[in-house]
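Appendix B, example 12.
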Amino acid sequence: MKKILNRQNFINIIVITIISLFLTRLSTNYPLVTDIDYDDVIFSLLLVFQYIIWLIICSMVFGNSITYHFVRTGLIVLQAAAFADLLDEFYDVKGLVSLTETLGEILGMFIITVGLIIYYKKNKEKIHHITALKNKYYQESIRDNMTGLYNQTYYYNYYKEISKDMNFISESNYLLVMDLDNFKNINDIHGHNTGDQIIRILGNAILSSVQNTQHLPFRYGGDEFIILFRSITLAEIKDIVENIKNNTSKVLQSRALNNGEYLEARFSIGITEQKNDDTGESLFKRGDKLMYAAKERGRNSIVTD
């Protein structure tokens, strides 16, 4: 309330009142309009009050900055134009009052525009910094912090949006569900740090193997990864899987454990084709079931539907 009733806003209202009284005094020299359009009167009156409200809001937003003084001056000019328009509904005005209405709108908007340009130039770096931070936090919210892959939440949000696209529905799309074999044993025997390293290595291998930007890889959770493939064949997917295995194995074979042992990359994989009535959840559940079927068949294998 104190911000609204500050000295600057009182000065604004006083300035507007003086201009309004001056224009009223001028207009009384002209004949009254005999056929008053009260709809136009109400519209003009609302415009008068609107500029007073905008003056108060701008004083709260911009404070006592140079931008505020430009905006304030422009709004006062617009206020004068609006008041001249209001008087025009009652008096058949000409000359100065009529000119105030026409030029005031142009001049007022010009002054406000200059003020906003000054504000943008002075705050450009801050605006860009805020935008960059917003993008950074958004990316962090949709990505897994260990691998850089998209996370489970983004998978469901992305599938919900992409499934509305008729092109996506008409394509041959697949979901691959991949799980590391015996990962619990790796954690138990070699420690969680080693397990985390393997997760990162696999994440990098997936990123380097899935080059087509239409295909999106996700870390679903733990040692489980999924890849949503678009417009592709099963044979092409199996080639990509082979690349992932090879890239993972190369890194693992170059890094011996403390006891001189080398770990081997083994995966159980389920691949399911997307159906027209699929949701993100139904598609994942089907792929996950196929992945567990691969484990039951002896692990380190691929099962498709």
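Residues 7-139 form one domain. The first strand starts at residue 150 and ends at 151.
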